[in-house]
Specification:
Ubiquitin-activating_enz; alpha+beta; ubiquitin-like modifier activating enzyme activity; single chain; Rossmann fold; SAE1 enzyme; 4 helices
């Protein structure tokens, strides 16, 4: 489900219905130079391709690069990952007075508060 130009109450209500029924939910809007986008994908599983890191044995090469690990692009492994997205209501109800939230405050764009 994709929503735009809706009130906050409508977005929260529809996201709750989607989250309960395992339906992916996207919402967003733009206000001049400022905008937002939110995605609730519920439980999202995916496979990520990882390149194996080959260690260089000491004494084979000279210079500062000998201590650095080199990527071997011919060897890769597939890693299954799972991410659980939070509902919109939970994302909007962050308590910014806690210690954990204070650390996240530095990484939060000022536009978040403008759109609130």
């Amino acid at each position: 489900v994709c929503l735009t130009c809706c009130s906050r109450d409508v977005m929260v209500k529809i996201d709750q219905i989607c989250h309960k029924n395992s339906v992916k939910f996207f919402t967003g809007d733009v206000f001049g130079y400022h905008g937002y986008m939110f995605a609730d994908l519920g439980e999202h599983e995916f496979v990520e391709e990882k390149t194996k890191v080959a260690k260089v044995s000491p004494g084979v090469e000279d210079g500062p690069d000998t201590k650095k690990a080199k990527l071997d692009s011919s060897e890769t492994t597939m890693v299954k990952k799972r991410v659980v997205f939070c509902p919109l209501k939970e994302a909007l109800a962050v308590d910014w007075s806690g210690e954990k939230a204070k650390a996240a405050l530095k990484r939060t764009a000022p536009d978040y508060f403008l759109l609130q």
